[in-house]
Amino acid sequence: MHRIERKPQEVFGDWIAGVADDWPQDAREWAHREFIDTIAVMVPGAVDPLADKIFATVEAWGHGPCTVFGKQQKLAAPWAALVNGAIAHVLDFDDNFDPPKAHPSAVLVPAIMAVAEEEKLSGPAVIDAYIVGLQILGRIGQGLNPTHRNRGWHATATVGVMGATAACARLLKLDAETCARALSIATSMSGGFMSQFGTEMKPIHAGLAAKGGIMAARFAQAGVTAGALTLDGATGMNRLMVGPDYEQLRDAMTHVEHGQTLRYSLENVGEPLLITEHKFRVKRFPTCGAIHRAMDGLLDLKEQYDFTAADVVSVDLLMPQVHFNNVFYTDPQNPLEAKFSAEYAVGCILARGDCTLADFTPEKVMSEDVRALFPIIHRHPVDKAESEFPTEVHVELKDGRKVKAVIAWPRGSKAAPFTDAEYWSKFDKCCAGVLDDDARAHLRDALERLPDLSHAGEIMARATFPSSQATRQQGQRRVYDNAN
User: Fold this and answer.
1) The pLDDT of residue 1 is above 80
2) Are 167 and 112 in contact (CB under 8 A)?
3) How confident is the model over 394-426, as pLDDT tens digits?
4) How many Å apart are CA 373 and CA 358, to the nearest integer?
5) How far apart are CA 250 and CA 236, in angstroms?
6) Distance (Å, whole) CA 74 – CA 293
7) At CA 409, angle to CA 403 and CA 412, rounded to 5?
8) I want to staple 224 with a disulfide (CB 3.0 to 4.6 A). Which of 19, 91, 139, 219 is the partner?
9) What is the CATH number of the domain that holds 179?
10) Mean pLDDT of the region 50-72
């Protein structure tokens, strides 16, 4: 009997619509923690200048029932998700997820919360949608990576919209065929280049993906038709967004990390459950995660050998080339560029003993205490994957000592996850200078109760701040003043 081969989007659509909401408790807890982390970084993100730029642009496009972080005026769901996604990603302090090599929560949380407000959905429903959306985001990302990301696509945008679509389709209880169509529609909203790193468009990618997920699910719900071969076909997402050598690369692959096989996993979409298998890379520093292993290593060396910047002859960074590809600014000229600079991140650790939100003002970025160290920080790219080659930090001291740290996983990752106390400590630090003690406690209370909330929108209702420009500028200054 001839076997009819099913399309990836059909298999994924079946799983989105049909998988039971009986997740293991640790999966629910991981999802809950990433809501905490994302809401935390959205608080200072809401007083970043980009927030006002985007809100001023989209405000006239449609008011509605959905909260924009830090604003009194509510918007229609796609526009609220657009602003909130950018706010969540603007400080580059939000989590990373290895299977797609993307920032998932800055996309998923804003999309999910907008639909939850619109539809008055519960906390358990949003946690369920997050787990479902993350699984599809990861599975599609594994089918495109590692080549997709290494060739310059920003997976937070390209694959993030697919995860957001799955999460929204789950919230709206769409049937399997409609879920599959929603994923096909979402491919038409997939885009974003790493050449935007170090600019305000980079965080807007997260917002566009969140918005696109809502729109794709709603278009599918309305009956909009879409192609059947948009994920895997002659002009499918994998061939177009990997390259014309997609099949050769896929068939020649010998080393696999993070499940990235250049193949869509269709035999068992939900096993393993990626949220518990891979967990997250929760950020200790508000910089590109590619440099965090080096930053951790240098901090460890400073603590172990008790040296300062004045004692150092040189710092040599041996890192996979793909990590250096992300932190490509060797002479950053503004805070956004500094977030993608190996020299600035390592220089902050060496000169200041840490790297916090306070280090990303124009004055701090141009300060000579760090910039004077750039010439002694040397790059040594290694043509190996990150799991094949841990980051090495070599420090030569003026007293003749040569010390070295080897770091395979950064703090906050699967190998060294944050404790619940560390999540809440990050939340408190992010709120400092933006929310007063009562407002912070009010928001934390709702976040703590997320798994049991009858209306998840209660969290967003506690996320409005004073909206005058003067007050917001004062809040932004206080963020940086209190970041240490």
Assistant:
1) no
2) yes
3) 999 999 999 999 999 999 999 999 999 999 999
4) 19
5) 15
6) 40
7) 115
8) 219
9) 1.10.4100.10
10) 96
In a domain? residue 467: no
Paired tokens of 416: 């060294």
* Angle of helix 160-171 versus helix 176-187 axis, rounded to 10: 150
Question: Is residue 143 situated within a structural domain?
Answer: yes
Q: How confident is the model at residue 465 (pLDDT cuts 50, 70, 90)?
A: confident
Structure tokens at 92: 């580059």
Domain count of the fold of the chain: 2
Residue 475: pLDDT above 60? no
Do 143 and 195 have their domain in common?
A: yes
Residue closest to 291 by CA, chosen among 346, 351, 364: 346
Q: Are 336 and 232 in a shared domain? A: no
Residue 247: pLDDT band with limits 50, 70, 90: very high
Looking up tokens 């997920």, which residue turns up? Answer: 213
pLDDT score recorded for residue 305: 98
The three-state secondary structure class of 64 is strand
Tens-place pLDDT, residues 112-149: 999 999 999 999 999 999 999 999 999 999 999 999 99
Please report whether residue 475 resides in a domain. Answer: no
Threshold 0.70, pTM exceeds: yes
Token code pair at residue 369: 């205490």
Q: Lowest-confidence range among 84-93, 446-455, 462-471? A: 462-471
For tokens 């706010």, name the residue: 87
Residue with tokens 């009986």: 22
Q: What would the DSSP string read from start to end of 194-210?
A: GGGTTSTHHHHHHHHHH
pLDDT-based confidence at residue 482 (cuts at 50, 70, 90): low
Beta strands in 372-455 (DSSP E): 377-382, 391-397, 402-407
DSSP one-letter string for 198-267: TSTHHHHHHHHHHHHHHHHHHHHHTT----S-SSSSTTSHHHHHH-TTHHHHHHH-----TT--SS---S
- Bridge partners (DSSP) of residue 380 are 318
Please state the rounded mean pLDDT for residues 439-446: 96
Task: Tell me which residue range forms the domain holding 383.
Answer: 289-407
The reported pLDDT for the residue numbered 3 is: 52
Q: Are 366 and 319 in the same domain?
A: yes
Q: How far is CA 179 from CA 97, 356, 463, in A?
A: 23, 41, 31
**Spatial contact of 381 and 320, defined as CB atoms under 8 Å apart:** yes
